[in-house]
Design goal:
heterodimer; A: 13 helices; B: alpha/beta; FAD/NAD(P)-binding domain; 7-stranded mixed sheet; 5-stranded parallel sheet; about 20% helix
């Protein structure tokens, strides 16, 4: 690799926003590098959130949030189709428990009209008819038919895979520690001691977007991280609750939601507490509070189907809106920060918008070879038994199921490793195609996954990491201690 | 679609014993479907001794125990497919499986479901804290050690005193790891007494009863844990927290039947065991589908799995060969509050008196108890048992139990002073 190569654009951060900008930038003839400090893409907020494509009725009209959410939600279905990402347009219900809540729903309904989002107020009876498992205490709901769910892991990975298919370069484990402006160009320094130069920088560093900006100028905003804890329930019944269920929002946020995921699991959460930027722990008090609220919404929600708890950190900021602009002091330095909720829903719209800004600024030509689609993943579910049989005949490893909870074959795992932006870790496999996400949480398949990774990456199994570098799953040899770092 | 007389799902201890027994009872057309690359199931990674004391009157390792059955299987030329995953079972007894020859279906006259169990995970017990690498179920760590030959860490703490955890405490110590202790949330150990003695006491590994892990630390790699004492409601007691530095936390917090395929087939589920609801012949609510071994209820010893599965195999054979008479009475089996579960849940009586085997667990330690079987009119059977503990399954063989004139049988365990 030629480190002295001059890039047209360097994107700092490979969360869903950085990956979306990268993907849309590759529509143009551009020399692009993406730097990510973690060992995979999407390992911060993009990898731990509700996976909701909000319809866009909630943000205040005129804000960036409202603008990008509505455009993004409308784009999401076709983008997911191009990128082979699981998406379902299940609609959302924001439910009311009081007259006061009903008044809020009316206001939200008016706001929806201003934002150009279709919503409908439902009576208690209408709500319970479509969601009979909700509490009979509810007083009504606001239906937003355009809301949906998406796999946030797959969306992030596939945006980057598609960008790389079209020529983008990704470097992992490269944490930016300094940026210098030298004349018209920027020099980016990483913790590893590498230096990169580019005409244009995009700060898409999520939780750290203000810190990265501070390398070059005084930030106009400050990230104020807020933690959200969740329960994950097993895929016990896809029709138990059909819509994403929100509590009526309050000043502090959208409150606890219950939602199906694209894999048929249910998410229950999140909490909303200020936290240290690296603190992704869960705690019993918060989780039992979430449980209490969730049972108020849905008294028969089966918490005995609980298979995991997790938390994610929202990159909220003190300006309470997305910051998306070119720096006034530093031309060609684009700031895309504070992308809090509804950031996932907005991601593709932000990607398209920022890439257009850069195209205009750098007068980029159209990339005629741009292919907007990724190679399809082949699964038994998608193909059906007959076609899958033909596939096994050609490639027998499609007939070797490694993950029995999610029914994933060895060939699918190998494919997830061999692609651009391919998996190199146990968590990377889990995020891309789900082994380890099921009820057994990897107790059955993890050792197999480790062995397949080792074989594919031509490594010893002791070199395979769970997630970050240094998280090696097993030690080198049985009694050796040379690997005890 | 191919037709088979008997399809056995799972080639572990339960599947092997069922197959051999069905064969010996007159069914020749048998197929075992096994997901792994070899027969024997979880026994293959249990390289410690202690198996076979009841069944073979000798002490064997897990692979040796499995080997004895595999030899018997091969003598009978019973067919098996390896690397074969069953993906669905229908209430018509149509089995869909996938392996490297393709996605295939079989119509079976009878099915013995012997798919084993899973380990409970951190998520199921909701241990709070971070989610770093370094938290493993004991069985996964055992697989890494005994099959792949690798340790998962050097400074180990164990949550739960289940047998796999105890076995792993000794095993990891012998392989050079330091096992710092075992916490058990209950006031008594969940493992066999011999394992407490041989795996913990012999190695000076402390066992903390009424104690649990209340926090996990380390963003990417496990750095340490917080343990706390718990009160009688199993809630952590503030002020008793203690930090332990470790790179590995093993969970040995119980097993549960991996019963999802039968649940999806429509077999009724026993809410207490999470396995299928079965009658005295180990037959589920769908005629001709039998369930046995750890997918029915979690056993303490493989010897008991073999015994139960021999019954399942014989009963499946009797069903296939049309040897069964009609059901003359249907009884529900209930139990008193201090019983955790009892198998069977129902009795499909085919004669007025039958020999019935009951398997059950108590919910707490009981020094001495009267065990009574009764119906609404009278006591049918009683006996006295000593030193009942939840970690040891109790098996009751009742001869000539009266099965008419009533629609239920109640199992009662009455504590004696």
């Amino acid at each position: 690799m030629n480190l002295n190569q001059e890039y047209d654009v360097i994107i700092i951060g490979a969360g869903v926003i950085g990956c979306a900008i990268a993907r849309y930038l590759m529509r143009f003839d551009v020399n692009l590098l993406v730097l990510e400090k973690h060992n995979d893409v999407g390992d911060e907020a993009s990898g731990a959130n509700s996976g909701i494509v909000h319809s866009g009725y909630d943000p205040l009209p005129g804000t960036n949030k409202a603008k990008f959410n509505v455009i993004g939600a409308n784009m999401m279905k076709s983008v997911c189709e191009e990128l082979d990402v699981a998406y379902e347009n299940i609609g959302s219900l924001t439910i009311s428990f009081s007259e006061e809540d009903n008044a809020t729903l009316e206001k939200l309904h008016e706001r929806a009209i201003k934002n150009g989002v279709e919503t409908k107020i439902l009576t208690k009876e209408e709500t319970l008819e479509i969601e009979p498992n909700l509490s009979s205490e509810i007083k009504g709901a606001l239906l937003a038919p355009s809301a949906g769910i998406v796999s946030p892991f797959a969306l992030t990975v596939k945006l980057m895979e598609n960008a790389m298919d079209n020529g983008a370069q990704l470097m992992l484990n490269e944490e930016v520690v300094k940026i210098e402006k030298i004349g018209e160009i920027y020099k980016v320094f990483t913790k590893k001691g590498n230096e990169f130069i580019a005409k244009t920088i995009v700060d898409a560093a999520g939780l750290y977007s203000d810190e990265v900006l501070e390398f070059i100028e005084k930030p106009s905003f400050k990230v104020t991280p807020r933690k959200g804890e969740y329960f994950v329930l097993d895929h016990f019944n896809r029709n138990f609750i059909k819509h994403t269920i929100f509590m009526c929002p309050t000043k502090v946020g959208k409150g606890v939601l219950i939602s199906k995921t694209t894999s048929g699991n249910y998410l229950v959460g999140p909490s909303n507490d200020s936290c240290d930027i690296t603190d992704v722990s869960t705690d019993s008090e918060t989780l039992s509070e979430i449980k209490k609220i969730a049972l108020k919404i849905c008294p028969t929600l089966p918490f005995d189907e609980n298979i995991r708890q997790f938390s994610g950190i929202r990159p909220n900021s003190d300006v309470d809106d997305f910051v998306i602009k070119e720096s006034e002091k530093n031309p060609n330095f684009f700031i895309v920060g504070g992308i809090m909720s509804p950031g996932l829903a907005s991601s593709v719209a932000i990607g398209e918008y920022v890439s257009n800004l850069i195209k205009d600024k750098l007068s980029l030509k159209i990339n005629k070879k741009f292919n907007s689609r990724v190679r399809q993943h082949i699964t038994l579910k998608k193909l059906g038994a007959e076609l899958y049989n033909h596939l096994i005949f050609r490639e027998p490893l499609y007939g070797r199921l490694v993950c029995r909870c999610e029914k994933i074959s060895e060939a699918e795992i190998i494919d997830a490793i061999r692609r651009n932006c391919g998996a190199t870790t146990v968590k990377g496999i889990k995020k891309r195609i789900r082994p380890g996400f099921g009820k057994c949480q990897g107790t059955f398949c993890e050792a197999e996954v480790v062995k397949i990774l080792a074989k594919e990456l031509r490594k010893d199994i002791s070199e395979i990491c769970y997630s970050e570098l240094g998280t090696n799953v097993v030690l080198k040899s049985l009694k050796g201690d040379s690997d005890d770092k | 679609m191919i037709n088979r007389d008997l399809v056995i799902v799972g080639g572990g201890s339960a599947g092997l014993a069922s197959a051999i027994s069905a064969y010996d009872n007159g069914v020749n057309d048998i197929l075992i479907l096994e997901r792994n690359g070899e027969l024997g199931g979880i026994l293959n990674q249990c390289i410690h001794p202690g198996f076979g004391l009841h069944h073979f009157n000798e002490e064997l390792t897990g692979p040796e125990y499995a080997h004895k059955y595999i030899e018997e299987l091969k003598k009978r030329n019973i067919q098996y497919f390896l690397n074969t995953q069953v993906i669905s079972i229908s209430n018509e007894k149509i089995i869909t499986y996938i392996n490297q020859t393709g996605v295939n279906t079989i119509k079976a006259k009878a099915i013995v479901f012997a798919a084993g169990c899973n380990e409970r995970t951190r998520g199921q017990i909701s241990t709070p804290g971070c989610r770093p690498k370094g938290v493993y179920t004991a069985g996964l760590a055992q697989r890494y050690l005994n099959i792949e030959g690798r340790l998962v860490g050097k400074k180990v703490y164990i949550l739960g005193s289940g047998d796999i955890g105890l076995i792993m405490a000794r095993r990891m110590t012998l392989e050079g790891a330091k096992v710092l202790g075992v916490s058990e949330i209950m006031p008594y150990s969940n493992g066999l007494k011999r394992n407490i003695a041989q795996c913990l006491n012999d190695f000076n590994i402390p066992l903390r009863l009424s104690n649990t892990v209340t926090k996990i630390f380390g963003r990417d790699k496990l750095e340490g844990i917080e343990i706390s004492d718990v009160d009688s409601n199993l809630r952590p007691i503030k002020g008793t927290e203690k930090y332990i530095e470790c790179d590995t936390l093993l969970l040995s917090v119980g097993l549960y039947p991996f019963n999802s395929l039968l649940k999806e087939a429509g077999c009724l589920v026993n809410k207490e065991t999470k396995g299928s609801l079965v009658d005295q012949n180990l037959e589920t609510s769908i005629e001709g589908i039998f369930s046995t071994g750890n997918v029915l209820h979690v056993h303490d010893l493989v010897d008991f799995v073999s015994e139960e599965s021999e019954r399942a195999g014989k009963n499946a054979a009797d069903y296939i060969l049309g040897k069964r008479s009609n059901v003359i009475n249907k009884l529900e089996v209930k139990h008193s509050l201090n019983v955790g579960y009892v198998i069977p849940s129902i009795i499909n009586a085919r004669s007025e008196n039958e020999d019935i085997i009951f398997s059950f667990r108590v919910k707490k330690n009981i020094k001495k108890a009267s065990i009574i079987l009764k119906n609404s009119a009278k006591i049918l059977y009683s006996c006295i048992k000593k030193n009942l503990v939840p970690s040891e399954m109790i098996k009751l063989k009742v001869k000539n139990l009266e099965l008419i004139g009533t629609d239920n049988i109640q199992l009662e365990v009455i504590e004696n002073e």
